[in-house]
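Need residues for this backbone.
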């Protein structure tokens, strides 16, 4: 039922609540990024009304905006937090992360993009690093990490361009990318190949390898493993590790009710 239809309504019915939910539900796996005009068409609202609802939801933190496009933020998860407590992506992914960490003897993480940071939402430590603690909810600058670059590379080009305009590059090691232009070239390569390797840019001797976890055309999160250069045991990143991570990502997506793309 669209917001402009007139159903048989009880006296307590709040029309603005219906319209707010209609605007939020206009964003889905097939259309994660929408303009005012597209939301107006999807909800049968006027363009002016759609714009007011969208900007209000931005102010409340449930939507983000880049240029003319709007997108959901992780805060929308708060709406269904009670339901998702028993069936959410981190909980579904955890057994897969545990198996991957045990198999490779390397730490495996699940991260999402929030503004210009990546946020850890699930993690399994390498058995040999059982005493090392990384708290869930920890943030890192997205540009500097394999999972962050993977998630940025999955965004529409207009979002990537605006990210590159505002990003501040600061070196962590001698291997760190030195400019937004260099980072932009790297994002293009990541988008083409479908996986990301960041080699010794955050810490000497440490590599990060990431692949996307997709549901349809929507990227849910990034799966990452931390690889110590002295601990690869003869494995090839492209021939051995990337296919292994892609297999795990597809399994997580399948268990979550989606499919890999």
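Answer:
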């Amino acid at each position: 039922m669209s917001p402009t239809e007139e159903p048989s309504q009880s006296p307590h019915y709040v029309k603005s609540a219906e319209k707010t939910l209609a605007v939020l539900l206009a964003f889905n796996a097939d259309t994660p990024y929408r303009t005012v005009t597209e939301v107006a068409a999807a909800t049968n609202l006027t363009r002016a009304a759609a714009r007011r609802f969208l900007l209000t939801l931005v102010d409340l933190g449930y939507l983000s905006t880049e240029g003319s496009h709007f997108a959901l933020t992780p805060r929308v998860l708060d709406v269904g937090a009670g339901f998702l407590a028993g069936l959410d992506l981190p909980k579904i992914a955890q057994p897969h992360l545990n198996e991957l960490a045990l198999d490779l003897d390397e730490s495996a993480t699940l991260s999402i993009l929030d503004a210009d940071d990546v946020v850890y939402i699930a993690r399994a430590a390498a058995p040999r690093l059982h005493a090392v603690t990384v708290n869930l909810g920890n943030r890192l600058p997205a540009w500097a990490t394999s999972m962050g670059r993977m998630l940025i590379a999955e965004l529409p080009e207009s979002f990537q361009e605006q990210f590159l305009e505002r990003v501040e590059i600061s070196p962590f090691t001698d291997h760190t990318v030195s400019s937004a232009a260099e980072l932009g070239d790297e994002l293009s390569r990541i988008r083409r190949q479908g996986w990301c390797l960041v080699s010794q840019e955050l810490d000497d001797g440490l590599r990060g390898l990431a692949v996307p976890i997709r549901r349809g055309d929507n990227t849910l999160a990034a799966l990452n493993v931390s690889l110590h250069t002295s601990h690869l045991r003869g494995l090839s990143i492209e021939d051995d590790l990337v296919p292994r991570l892609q297999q795990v990502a597809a399994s997580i997506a399948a268990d979550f009710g989606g499919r890999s793309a």
